[in-house]
Amino acid sequence: MLVMIRLLFGAPYLNPKLHCFESHSKMPTVIALDVSLSMSRPVLTEASEEYQRRHFAIHGINTYLDVLSSTCKLEFVSLVAFSYLWEQLCTFTRDFGTIRTALNKVEAYSKTCFETALNGIRTLISDEWNNAPCQVVMITDGSLGIGAGSLKASLQTANSRQPSEKFPLPFNFPCKIHIVCIGSTSDPDVQRSLPYYQKLIDMAGYGGELFTLDGGISFKSVEDVFRRLAEKYFSQFWGTLCCGNFTCPVQLFPKPEPLVRDVDEERDTYNISDKIEIIGFLDIKDIGSPPTIARHLILPRSMKDRDREDGKGGDGKGNKPEEEEDSHDDGKTPSFTVLLHGGLKMESMVAIARIQKDWFGMIYSWADSKKKSNLMLALFEPGQLSVPWIGPFDQLTSCKEYAPETLYSDEEKKSPFPVRSADKHSYAYNCVVWIKPSGLQSDIQKVLRHARKLPDKLQQFYKELNRTRRAALSFGFHSLLEALAAMLERECTLLPGTAHPNAALQLTHSANFLLSEAATDATQNLTPLQTNFAAGSNG
Amino acid sequence: MFNPQLQRPSTRILSYNRVHIRHVAPLTAQQRASLPPMTVPLLQQQQCGLTGRPVKLSKPHTSSDSFLPNQLLCLLDDNQGNGVDISVSRRGLPLHECELVVVHSIPLDQEIRLNDRPLKELGPVLRSELTTSLSGRHLYNKLVYLCCRHYDLCSTTVTGIPMKEEQNASSSANYDVELLHPAAAHDDLFKSEHAEGLVIPSKEGLPIETAPLKWCTPKSSVVELHNCSAAYRICPVDVNSRPSSCLTNFLIGGRAVMLEQPRKSGTKVISHMLAAHGGEIFLHSIPSSRSILEDPPSISEGCGGRVTDYRITAFGEFMKENRLAPSTSGLLKRLEGAPSYAKAIDHLEKSSRFWPMVISETILFNIINSVTPLPQLMMKETLTEDEVIECKRVIYRIVGMETNNEALPVPAAGARGKGSKRDEQYRQLWAELEALVRSYSDTSSQHAKVLACLQECRKPPQPGAGDDVTAHAQVTLNRKLSTPGQGAGAKDVGKVGGAEVEQGWRELDRLQHMTEREKQDFLQGEKQTDAPPPKKMKSEDLLMRSGGQTLLSMWNNRLRTIHAKRAHEFDGRVDVDSDGKAKLYIHLEEINDQEQIAPTSTSAKKG
């Protein structure tokens, strides 16, 4: 049996550039608190009451949650306690109150063991967030643990493990690890531990920082260190949404992180600019469902936030009359974001926004549930052609540059998109595929079907016959021509008496041609026999 | 003899390579001598270039395997590894990388006597491997396998596609279609730890694994916006078989198909979507894991969320007018390298120069029928004489309306109960109109003419009133001011027309101290009778529907309705229901007091 190969692929059909890479913007946070016995060591303070390191740590976490609840209300935070074992005290939640409650119930257990904690965190993130990027805040007291489970021992053996007992770092998801050390930097134990902590952070490979107290342990120094952490790594992104003369100060949540991409051994870093500039609008059906690398909620910045910022500037605006503060009723001051959201939702459109040179995104109305919808910014991959069907972003222009009605018509569903690719794909061609016997069989059957309806299907018969013949020739499948000729001759003998005389003539003509020398010449075409039955050949 | 037609697929593979990897380079004469004869023409086709991967298809000339030049076999078998150096091509271009894949194909009735040689470094730039295959279907499978390996492809099988039978259109059967696509499309699928059982052997008999994903029949043809993390082009394994072309035609026709992960239990998980864009079919990856964006706040909870009268419909039109389109080559040429989107931004700027966001802040856009086509014409780059006349006609129309004291559609009372007095409304209308025209007046001298006409026609502004904007029109005119934030707009207005704001507030305060009756008279002005206010119409409706009322109340209602139609009810009678007594001129004293104070102390606010 002869089965011929037709190459599977047409012209270049895979665009290797359309490649997704990790975005670091979705960031659930894990607070990992060391609850080993060493955390229960008392701290000498001037106060009459005796406090343990644990109390300071809890105080610090509360400070951190305070900052978070004003800047990152939507952050998901989970609380994990670790010693020799680990336990998730509070699942991922936006309700920081439950974490505070859980903190109050923390008890003291055996010895510090970082590796267990890291293994636990890995399980949590991969189970719950499918390996989304995350941040971890580990709070410890400067002791590395003792014996086999100590951080020192873990790190020493990290590179010589069996695959089954692999050291948890680096995680198989991007993760920033911050370590807050509740201990006086003058304490020799603490000094000895810090390099190991730094090693741990470096192994994670996605940044993160080691935070130490300024001076001794006091409520103030602990508060400061946690505030420093929160302000540096859990700050808000503030920018401006512009659309022509409409401008609106906005916050993006989650905070966009710089994007790092390796191209040809070069490292490109893309930072989102604080001006999100709408360049125009597109119908949802035109943008399709484009690939995006990150999504951020666009929240209008409230007057209060802005006042607070102004106040921080320290130019004396802080002492403005109270009543004026109250007169900003945020809900009732019109905001462009709400207008834009309403328009986009009603018209099923998206806004295309430029966020940086060579980097674009789209703004649309997004609903998690049916009830609550909000304004969302989804970022395309940096570059011009990240959505091939709308063409290079820099080449998008207003339809007003042309006669708009010739481009768009809602009644006729007319639109200048999609931009068609110059490549034709094998599935778009009506090409002959004889990989499997069924392919060949169905093509021959098609010829025979038309042959039986001669002379009505004269044109179709010759079209299909030539198509099959050309394919046979290009595959070097010459024996197929003889087989075809035999089949057509047989059809001729089977013609019913009522058949049109032209049918027999055409069949014989075709069979003879297939057997002739000319049939193997790919440049020649088999044409219908010219007959006097003009009425019959109505094609 | 060797079949020359077989060259075609291999050539195609080569040209394909050239696109994927940057270039394919020719070999030197010595190198060519050391390679099988078939390979040479293939390499020669690639005239310039640096790296590449020729795939050579060969077939034994005789029953022996000796056709492969011994040099090549020796090279492949040579454990010493001191192979050929082909770092510079015939044309002097440096050759960076070359991977020669020889596919040795043997007729079906023969036995494969040659062993596969794995990929081996033959020198600094040349790698080579030999692989054998039976011809026909097996060769095809081998080639697909090589494609998958060389281009990092993997396979997805769409299962359970319902299709009508060719012969019997009323019955339908389920088919599976296998697709090839870049392997990255499965990243999300295998990221989770529950990935076991997600792949099965290829249903098309390819020597690769495939991930079966279940077809979900699309319910509507409405195009929705899905959250996709990536999109990859696909190609069916059996390109134009009936099930494949059924699927591809369905997709190219504009429908999107969601694909579901096979799960024995639990909820349905959609992991991919198939959709065509511009005739190309893409496999979209849909993230299925938990997102930090879940349960977001509603937009109505944020700033401006409780404002209910945004001009959403008008903004819809604004968006449609500012839809994007790809640039034509003519436009690109005209722009001389400048990005086209800048043009789109210009148009956006132009059409948003005067654009109140809420209905209650504008009168102009609530009587848009009376002012058409002025706003549209003003946005144009140039105005003809006729168009200027059109604009002027609109201005005259408004003058006429004001002379006749025609009622304006008063925006629903906003937060501060605005827009009450008729002439005040006209003042607002004029201010809006002027702000609109002024914002375009520097476009051309013709535009300036319209502004001049407007300024002539507008009533001389009241003493002390600013000539720019009124207190009630929030004007988005920060084009040149570039003030941060539209929220600051109200403040700007305060600065610009401070004196007028004061006046506006004073009038408003006075109005609030009047009785209903006085207000009506105050607003109706001179002897102009309007249609009864809609509020009163309602009470008539009430009468028709009133059930369970006493005869007296019905009679009173009826009387009230009749009187209300005629004129505003005498206050004494309006209030008679409440406590039987009505005080006349309730604010008389206060007003008298105020009028005495007002001229002396302008800072008096909200008595």
TrEMBL record, chain A:
Keywords: Nucleus. One of its GO terms (cellular component) is integrator complex. Residues 234-383 form the Integrator complex subunit 14 beta-barrel domain. SUPFAM superfamilies: vWA-like (SSF53300). It comes from Elysia crispata. One of its GO terms (biological process) is snRNA 3'-end processing. Residues 304-321 have a biased composition (Basic and acidic residues). This is Integrator complex subunit 14. Residues 304-334 are annotated as: Disordered. Pfam families: IntS14_b-barrel (PF19435), IntS14_C (PF20504), VWA_2 (PF13519).
TrEMBL record, chain B:
Residues 519-539 are annotated as: Disordered. Pfam families: Mat89Bb (PF10221). GO terms for biological process: cell division; centrosome localization; regulation of mitotic cell cycle. It is found in: Cytoplasm; Nucleus. Keywords: Cell cycle, Cell division, Cytoplasm, Mitosis, Nucleus. Its main location: cytoplasm. GO terms for cellular component: cytoplasm; integrator complex. InterPro entries: Cell_cycle_regulator_Mat89Bb. Belongs to the Integrator subunit 13 family. This is Cell cycle regulator Mat89Bb. It comes from Elysia crispata (lettuce slug). The lineage of its organism: Eukaryota, Metazoa, Spiralia, Lophotrochozoa, Mollusca.
